[in-house]
Amino acid sequence: SPRAVRRYVLCEVLSDDPRCRQCIEDRAVGLAVRDAIGRVHGDYGLACCSISFTVKYLNAYTGTVLLRCRKDSYRLLCSALPFVRYLESRAQRYPCALNTLHVGGTIRTCQKFLIQYNRRQLLMLLQNCTNEEERQCIRKSLLSCSLTEEQSQSGDEEDDDGIE
Question: Which key words are in the record (predicted)?
Fold first, then answer.
């Protein structure tokens, strides 16, 4: 099965510049990652990683990015991600970093990880709440995390776009 030869790398875009959010788009992330791979691993590494490489999912609001690559080149990809220093959009460069959260064999395992990760983040926020209104808001978000997880159990095992 061609699905078994892929890896999905779940990352988050970290930036102190609020304008960076507006350039978290497939093209900008793809170019920044390819640039980093080229700098770290040269043309050969870039060629290896480029086969099947794509930005599979992106959420600019949360800064979440899901990258897909071949199983045999995911270590090259992951080792280059810390060297992403900025995203570029409309000739403007916005400093940022890519933090790798999880590497999975399917999109589903990455989704499950992300649900648990978001729940942990919300629980940390809950501990730092200063008033009851904030607490209620975060409790509501926590509840929606667990409901989403239960709903995803019934879906297809893999949400992929098929064969290369």
Answer: Nucleus, rRNA processing, tRNA processing
